[in-house]
Amino acid sequence: MVLSVVNNRIVIDLSNGTIKKYQASQFDFYGYEYFDGQFQKESQSLESDILKIVDYIQQENIKVKFTPLVDSLLRNAAIRKEEHQRLHKLASDIKNGQIEPDLFEEFTSFLNTIPRKLKAHQIKAAYHLYSLKNGANFSVPGSGKTSVVLSVYEKLRLEEKCNVLFVVGPPSCFQPWQNEFKETLGRVADVTILSGGDKDTRKEEYYKSQHSISELYMSTYHTILNDCSDVVKFLDQKGVYAFFVVDEAHYMKQIGGSWANSLLQLAKHTSFRCVLTGTPIPKSYKDIFNPFDFLWPREAPLTEEDKIQIGLWEKKKDNASVKAVLDKKIGPLFYRVRKQDLGLKPADFHEPILVKMNSYENRIHELIRSKIHELSTVDFFNNEEILSKLWRGRMIRLRQSVSYPKLLLKAIEDYSENLLDNDSELVDIIQNYDKLEVPGKLDFLVKMVIQLNKEGQKVLIWSNFIGTLELLKKHFTKLNLRSELIYGKTPIKKDDTNVFSEEMTREEIRDVFVDPNSGLDILIANPAACAESISLHKTCFHAIYYDLSYNCAQYLQSLDRIHRVGGSEVNIANYYFLQYDNSIDQDIKTNLEIKAQKMYDIVEQDYEIYNLDMFDETDEDDVAAYKRLFHEGLL
Question: How many Å separate Cα 56 from the centre of its chain?
């Protein structure tokens, strides 16, 4: 038997030998087709396929000869495997505290030369990443993952092993990376933002000479998808040695997803790689596959057989077996700092503040609640797809009724039910609501904010509805209380060009708000726009939740805006919750607490799964709440 490769086609020639029937069936299972004494397969992953078939041939003790090309591929694969095993052992030793003193001292001596002094847990994470050169940091939000990566990048740059830091993440991370770059390394990065705008204009950035490239490149997942071939050419050009970072790496979890495929394609064209996320396994064990395939594109820690077996175990809920494999194969290759390792003062979650509704909003709320009760009794007449849309829409209406009554006049996508039942008087009350009264929550909120401001405290106010956010901003303005608003319409800073605009970006608002002498002491925001990548913890220690949604991921992320490393070691983060008595507010808060506790319990471990999909936009939470409240008679 002779094993050869011809134009990416693997050929097994049987001219000088025979195989057994079951062996031929195995070749067929691996995707080989039989043609005139030869098994052939067109390969998309040549080395991987050759290693798989050679492993099987050797297990079966089949005599085989390799052509020089195949022999070379096997030798190179063996060298990489040996190197990966060395790194695997090194990483395991580091995580177990078996550190070479001289090497660690040399590394910490370097860290003492950079402006930002890393915390103890950050030093360990940085040394782990530096030792592996390609690594994952799954530390909880607020642990300083960005500073860890920047310190490792700087050491590799000074060693002349890389000269470009290429970061892919959501647009909201662009400014924090630039801020952290300056604070950690003590210099302003020469940065190029590769996001939005015209692709042809962006294309010019990919084809600059090595003498005119930037040091820091920032791009989005969507841009990487659109510009993948151009990014490959940029990374491959002479003089470019890129440290490639995937931030908020949970976005690349989908197996076969277009974003993930683009990043996996780019991996082979980079010098060093790193993935960052506090939630590496948001839904399924399979979510861990892509990050590690990206980190080690030529020597993946998890084989295809491992992945298949993990999938089978997951279906059987055999978590112990999965954990054993992951512990062995990838356990040493990532670093995690747990919440309890951060040395933060415990946050103070104040008991919910029960507020009485004012007369008009109480009347509106009771009508909406009773109407939903009435409609729920005939739900069985509709099919499941229609019901899900109805239930979601009704829950949003109920949540709107305890936030700001005028929200009930705005349309909801895929929901057209008229809960106001053509009650002209009630419609008129809602349309003119602002002239009739101020919501009870808003009355109480203003008193709270004024008191906290008198005490010299800045206040962060959260709401999930755009109309409510705008109401709060308008009301504070009327009272001559300076406030700013961050929500979906608030622009994100794209680059450093000085284009004049009267509208402040999210980053500019954040910078003014955290300035203790700015006079801006009230920030109003919604979790969808401000729960990720914006840090407020150095000068703001009070967050008030005007209303809540059932989205636990956004809730947890919003908590971390004022409870993080770099301020929360000495300042207590305070959380307040405004609720209307005997309303859906209580159910949402209780539901979030249950889910949050589960998530916190899980995130302190290595491989547990979140039962909720934290990052897909689904309606499951509202629908589940509807069933619980109305079909089980809890509201």
Answer: 39
Coil, helix or strand for 166?
A: strand
pTM, full prediction = 0.70
Q: What percent of the chain lies above the pLDDT cut of 90?
A: 57
How many CA atoms, within 13 angstroms, populate the side-chain half-sphere of residue 339?
Answer: 18
**Of 378, 412, 377, 420, which is closest to residue 395 (Cα–Cα)?**
412
Tokens standing for residue 510: 């954040």
Closest Cα to residue 168, out of 232, 221, 234, 235? 221
Position 40: which residue type?
Answer: Q
pLDDT: which is higher, 200 or 633 = 200
Q: Is 160 exposed, middle or buried (0-12, 13-18, 19+ CB in 10 A)?
A: exposed
Q: What is the pLDDT of residues 268-323, one digit of tens each?
A: 999 999 999 887 776 678 888 999 999 998 888 998 889 999 999 988 988 889 88
The dihedral of CA 532, 538, 539, 543: what is its sign? positive
Q: Rounded to an integer, what distance in angstroms lies between the CA atom of residue 149 and that of residue 225?
A: 24
Given strand 242-246, what is the order of strands in its sheet? 191-194, 216-219, 164-168, 242-246, 272-276, 134-137, 334-335
Phi, psi (degrees; rounded to nearest 5) at 601: -60, -40
Residue 607 has pLDDT above 60, yes or no: no
| CB neighbours of residue 192 within 10 Å | 21
For the chain, domains (ranges, CATH) are 2-75 (3.30.70), 99-341 (3.40.50.10810), 348-353+438-494+503-610 (3.40.50.300), 357-436 (no CATH)
As a residue count, the chain comes to 635
